[in-house]
Here is the input.
Amino acid sequence: MVFVKASPQSQLRLLELADLDADLVRLARRRQGLPEVAELARLEARASELKDAVVQIETELSDLSREQSRAERDVELVRTRIDKDRARLDAGQVSAARELASLQSEIESLHRRQGDLEEIVLELMERWETLVSRRDEVAAERESLGNQMESLAVQRDAAFADIDAHGAKASGQRDAVAADLPADVLKLYDQIRTTRGVGAAMLRAGRCEGCHLNMNTVDLNEIRAAAPDEVIRCEECRRILVRTAESGL
Ligand SMILES: [Zn+2]
Here is the structure.
């Protein structure tokens, strides 16, 4: 096992480093957990639903438009037929009683057919109007959603800029502190930090500030006996344990 040594001053700087690393972790979490980001994701999902809804409504409208044309054409055909029959009737072209009765009955049935078709045309028009007003509603919601998203994005970007400015400052400070530390101590610290999140902790009043456990008497006696430049590690959490005037030794 390699014992790492570092001056008490260097060891104290490890605590500064740990504070800065904690700041950086907090900032990264804040960046990830920004409420604006979650809200924007929610609004984006809604925007995509609305986009699909518009496509569906447009498709239905175009189908309906075809159906309407067809129904109107059918009405027109029936009307033309009725006019023709009427003309024949009025011109007195049909005189045989049987033929006359048959023509009249045809006209009656054409009228019924015309009535049915006109009802279909009306129904289609109603469906058309419902769809158009639904399309207007969706368009209005999309517009207000777009405005909301725009202002949220502005807020999010401002929050990002603020976090990033703090992050850049903390990173700069971290680099400066790290540059002052012996390479082997820094390496050990970073290794522990990678696995445990926090690389170094203060020994305060006989207690490790990393895992918050109290040292037993044997451990404390060992720490008391250790040379000041010996890098000590917590028996529990294996973090670097930094001695200060508050350590209770
Ligand atoms: Zn500990």
Observations:
- Strands lie at 200-204, 207-208, 232-233, 240-243.
- The mean pLDDT is 95.
- Residues 42 and 110 are 56 Å apart (CA to CA).
- Helices lie at 8-32, 35-90, 97-180, 183-196, 217-225.
